[in-house]
Structures are given as C-alpha cells and as structure tokens.
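Hello,

Following up on my earlier ticket. Below are the two sequence lines again, exactly as submitted.
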Amino acid sequence: MQRRWLVVWLAVLLALVGITTRSGGLISLSLPILIYLGAGLLLSPGRAKLDIQRFQNTDFEIQGKPVEIKLVVINQGPGLSEISIEENLPTGVELQSGCSSIRTILDAGEQVDFDYTINAQRGIHKFQNVQVTAGGPFWLFRSRLALPVYSQLMVVPEIKSLQRIPIHPQQTRPYPGPIRSRKGGSGTDFFGIREYQVGDPIRWVNWQAAARNSEELYTNLFERENIADVGIIVDARQQTDVRGANGKEPLFEYSISIAASLADAFLNDGNRVSLLVYGFGMDRVFPGYGKAQRERILRCLAQARTGHNYPLETLNYLPARLFPARSQLVMVSPLSRHDTPQLIRLQAAGYDLLIVSPDPVDFQARAMADEPNIAEAVRIANVERGLLMRKLFRAGIHVVDWKVDQPVDRALQIAIRSQVRSTRPVRWQR
Amino acid sequence: MKLFWTPKIIMAFVVLSTASLALAYASGGYAVPAAVVIVTGMLWLLDYEQRWNHMASIVLVIFTLFCVFGYWVGLYLPLLVLSLTAALAAWDLDHFSRRVLNSAQVKHLDRMEKQHLQSLLLVCGVGLLIAEATLLVQIQLSFWAAFAAALVVLFGLTWAIALIRRNT
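Thanks for your patience. The regenerated structure is below:
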C-alpha cells in the first residue's frame, strides 16, 4: 500500500469510528494524523516549473568511447522541498560512471547540475524526456512530469587501421592512385614493350629488344597505377547472423566493424568507395571520396541492423548495377551455402569480388563450448564451410576466412597473398 | 551520503512511542499487551538498524490498533495520543531515511534533512498540542449534530481523495 493511502485510511477510520460512536477520544487520536495529512496536502507542490538543459561533449562518437553528459536544472517556480530528477537512458546506452538521477531540494531560482558518463552501443540514440517527481515535505502527494529535453547521439563503429589491401579490379578510374590498372603508361612495374614513338624518353628504350632487331627501337611500357571504384556490400540478412553466448554479441557487429575499417582503408588510398547494406532493406551510400564520404558511410553503418525481408533472403536481388561495371566489390558476409550461384554470377559479370567472411562456425563454437557433442557438430560445419570456400575460390573469388578473435588485418594479408600465389582460374578478358 | 539527525530522531521517536504506549498499558494493569508493545517497538528499531523493509508501516498500524484498544479499555488517553503522534513521526522519518539512502545521488542533503525535520516537528507538534487540548474540552453533541459532523468529514475526505487523485 502506498504511504498516503495508509495515512488516509488510518485518519478516516479513526475519525469515522469516533464520530459514529460519539467517542471524543478517538477523534482526538485521529487529529495528529489528520493534521499531518492536511499539511502534506496543503504543502504539496503544484506543477514544478523547471528549466532543464542537457549538454553532451559530442553528438558523434566512436563505439566504445565514453560520452559525458551534463544536466542542468533551474527551478523557475516556487521552492521544492524534495525533488527527484531522473534521466531515462535509451536502450543500448549504459551508465559508465556517475549517476543519471538525483534527489535534492531546490529553492526558487536555484540551479542544480549533475553529470555522468555513458557507454553506448552502435546506433542513433535519442534522449527525450527527463522524469521529475516533486513531492511536498512529507512526500505524500507527488506530482510527476516528463520534461522534454531532446538530444541525439550517433555512435559509429570503431575503425581499425588496416594495411593496404591489394586489389586488382578489371577497370580503374583515370586518376593516379595505388592500384595497378592493367594498362600501359607511366608507373613502376614493367608491363610490356611497344615500338618506339617520337617523344618517348630515351631511358625507356628497351636496348635488349632493339639489339635483337636491327631496324626498330622499342620502348618499355609500365603498368599505370590508378584509383579504383570499390563497392562494399554488408550482408545484413537475419539468417546469416549468428549470436554468441546468451543470444548477445551478434556476429553482425563484427561485420559492421570490418566494413567500417575496409571503407576507411580504401578511402585512405584515394579510392572511390560506395556502400550497400543488404538484408533488412537496402541502405546505400553513393560513391564518393574523402573524409565526407567516410562520415556518410559511418552514419549508414551506425544505423545498419539485421532483419528479415522475404525478397532479400537470397542474393538474387542484389542490385549489382548500382556499382560501376567491372569494379572491385568487397562483400562482408558470414556466407550461406545458398549464396554460391549468385556470387559466382557476380564474379562472372566482371566484378572483382573479395569476400571477407567472419567465421560463424568458430564464433558459435566458442559460445557453445560447453554443449555436448559440440566437437562433432563443429567438425561437420567446418567441412561444409570449407567446401563452400573452395567452390568460391575455384570461381576466382578471393575469400578471407576471418576468425573474429584474431586480428582482421593479419587474416586479410595472409588470405590474399596465399590466394594470389595459388593457381588462379583463367579469366576471360573483355 | 549520510543523514546526521534523522537516525537519532527516529530512535528517539520509536522509544518515546513505545515507552508511552507500554506505560499506558502497564499503568492500566495490562502487563502482557505492554510487553507486546515493547517487543514490537524493539522489532521496529531492529528493522531500522538492519534496513529491512515495510516494518514501519506495519508497526504504525499495530500501534494505532493498540491505541484504539487502549481507549476502549479506558487507559490514560494523553499517553496514547503522544504514542500515536510519535509513531507517526518515526514512520515518516523512517520512509524519508530510506528514500534518501536508496537514491543514487543526493545533493544538499543537510538542507533537505533540516527542512524535513523542521516541517515534521512543527506539524506533529501542532497535531499533538491540538489533540491534547481537545482532551480537555468536553462538548456534548446531539445525534443530529454528530451526524452533520460525520457528513462534513465524509465530504471533506471525499474532496481530499479526489484532489489527491487529480494531483497524481
């Protein structure tokens, strides 16, 4: 029973029994309680007039970094003998230090402030109302109100610094960059020779070839190094997402983190990067360069979430035409065995496909280490995944099998180098 | 975050309430109820010390029933009024103390405590004085006057309850 009802019932019963039995003593007994109740009622505050402001040290922060928030409350009305102010933290935001609530006394015109530090998950977090409960001196009659104080915090995935990723798309942009363009021109790597033309620098003349042919001179050609179009595809389909222990820590978070790091690495090399989050819907960032593009991609990744969408259950409707023809595509996906035909078709369409695949088998095996017969299940799942990888590799697709507890940079470098050294299928040159 | 005066005053009020009620019963020749009152008061103190919960409200109800019973058996009424008022004050302070201790953060605690104690002591003091004063005044009411008074109280309480509901 609430406090005030206890007092009300005691006072009512004593007074009524006293009156009906015409017992002055009982009425006298009820008087202290009645006066206490009356004082509580009369001194209870009306609607509190408060001015609340929220200050954040940033509204754009990287995941894992703390955000400091300060609330300043000014009493614009009459004095409040007891007041409780509580900030309702949005879902996905947890208190790291300090307190998000306070109980205090506020005289007229007085100001009180309190600050706290939060740690937020990736996403957009909207802070809306501050709950205020003002009570009279005995906290019997309270007025509760939710004061709107809007602010927003965008938490973007953490970017890990990656080494340069060797990519070789069939088509590059006409601007100088770090990627070998498969075209002759000025560069550092030998590409071929052609007949000498007037104006060619003498130091580019291939004297050995000229010596074999007494009438002609030949000029060395070098492979031109340009920037490329890179399209990053993040697989956000619910059926490919697996979760760790207790259903928390989804593998998708690793996909988002690596997608952000890849975008950063490609943009740092001067490439034109675009993004597609495929799964629950199709969120897209159009191709662009530089820091502004990095922020656009991070904002898109911050809002990305997995979900179920029947038409997008398979990669059949992957809008490949959104990406420039014969460009580099980097897909971040745990992979499903039903995806193989679509991925091979994408590679055959002329795109150079690199798949970074967070290993769902290893991820879930660690989470379910205590389950019986887990070793056999993991072995079977690994065989199945190995076959899938081999099938993709035979189609000329680079696949990086990333165990999420290991550094992604190392996994990328090892996988790409080993696959480059291996026998590659003959590609039809257009 | 520590209350300075409140714990001491709670103890004082619990002791005062228990002692006055037990004294009223003992002086009327009711030793067993007096012992029960003392045990109940000690349980309240233990509850406050150990920070258990809900004991204060139960004890307030028990003390009120003891006061009513004491009135019916003709015990010394000023002691009963004193006991009930002290129990009410202790009950209020007990809740105030718990509210403060359960809060994550409290600012200007000393001011808040001081103001609460001032208000409570004033209200309880006035209540006690008026209640004790009414014991000295004897008014004979006819049935219809008592009936009218009961109606006024009923309407007043209905209005008060409606006001409470509207405010909350």
